[in-house]
Specification:
seven-stranded mixed β-sheet, Alpha-D-Glucose-1,6-Bisphosphate, Chain A, domain 4, 14 strands, 2 domains, Bactericidal permeability-increasing protein, domain 1, seven-stranded antiparallel β-sheet, alpha+beta
Length: about 350
């Protein structure tokens, strides 16, 4: 029992505007589902990517938002539950093309929840039109890379606003305080659904252990209607690389020199240059695990009526093999043939 003149703060009614939930002791709950749906539509509906030298990609419709969100206050601590599956449509239009030639696709965000950081949110990208076409592959890659980054940023904004804006009136004013006084981060707790037995989830994120990545190799051969030195220059001259990449690039054409193509999505270092017959590189997608490079060897063999180009690549993460192979075919081989008139049938 409390001593005279003291007392348990749970039972003291202070001078406060509502005279309820003294010192924020009792569990209070506020449904955030409707607010969340409106906010998610607002944030995703603004997504638009203007890619210099290529075209414009934008979200056209939020087709489905399924899930729920709840904010709670217990003993002055804010606890959040939210779980959403979001689907949306997008379109991409190359510069100079009419609207009826736009590439159309969809995205799905299956795991927006309090159990994942915004950086861990998955964004699944698919095409509805343009599958297998150069236009389709271009915009799908833009959405998978730059689009995913922007979507994660918008989801981080949603999480922040849920905590700071929507839940601001859950911490009620006590004597000598104001309702709008911000709470410290120590009072913001994310509770996993699996921890609903009354204990608060640890604020520490689980340590991710290194996993062995399965590797694959590929080899492509192509007949080019050009001389060997012409093809060599296409891959080592900044102006020519810019032409077939259709956008800004970075290129240092010397051994040890670095390169970045396709808005930085492809990057690497030159290991060996033997004009006009050999180019060897360390090569990677920027989405690959940090520090992991494949090795690319491009042999250029001039024949009587054509030049045979053979591309060999080792140490490709197996889950990215198909994208890598399509990239070589669509964004290198086909783009070079189309840009410089080196066209020929597959060898």
């Amino acid at each position: 029992m409390a001593k005279w003149g003291e007392g348990d703060p749970r039972w003291i009614v202070e001078e406060r505007p509502d005279a309820v939930n003294v010192n924020n002791w009792h569990w209070t709950e506020k449904n955030a589902s409707r607010w969340s749906k409106d906010k998610l539509k607002e944030l995703l509906g603004k997504l638009k990517i203007d890619e210099p030298g290529i075209g414009v990609l934008e979200i056209t419709d939020i087709t489905s938002i399924e899930g729920e969100a709840v904010a709670n206050n217990r003993k002055g601590k804010l606890i959040f539950f939210y779980e959403w599956n979001i689907k949306a449509d997008w379109k991409g239009l190359l510069n100079g093309k009419s609207e009826d030639l736009a590439v159309k696709g969809s995205i799905e965000i299956p795991n927006l929840s309090e159990e994942n950081d915004a950086s861990e949110i998955d964004v699944n990208v698919s095409l509805r039109t343009g599958e297998g076409s150069i236009d389709g592959d271009v915009f799908k890659e833009i959405m998978r890379n730059k689009g995913t980054q922007l979507i994660r940023e918008q989801m981080a904004t949603y999480i922040r606003l849920l905590r700071e804006d929507f839940a601001k009136d859950l911490i009620l004013p006590t004597k000598g305080s104001t309702a709008n006084q911000p709470k410290s981060e120590s009072n913001r707790v994310i509770l996993n659904k699996s921890d609903c037995n009354g204990t608060v989830a640890s604020a520490l994120k689980p340590v991710k252990t290194d996993q062995k990545i399965e590797m694959r190799s590929l080899e492509l051969s192509e007949k080019m209607k050009c001389r060997a030195d012409e093809f060599y220059r296409v891959l080592t001259t900044p102006e020519l690389v810019t032409a077939f990449c259709q956008g800004p690039i970075e290129l240092e054409p010397n051994v040890g020199g670095k390169f970045k193509f396709f808005d930085g999505n492809v990057e690497g270092i030159f290991l060996k240059l033997e004009e006009p017959k050999l180019i060897m590189q360390k090569w990677r997608f920027k989405t690959w695990p940090s520090g992991h490079y494949s090795t690319v060897t491009i042999n250029i063999d001039e024949k009587d009526d054509h030049t045979l180009v053979t591309i060999k690549q080792t140490d490709i993460p197996s889950n990215d093999f198909d994208r890598t192979e399509r990239g070589w075919k669509n964004f290198y081989i086909e783009a070079i043939k189309r840009t410089f008139g080196f066209g020929a049938m597959l060898y």
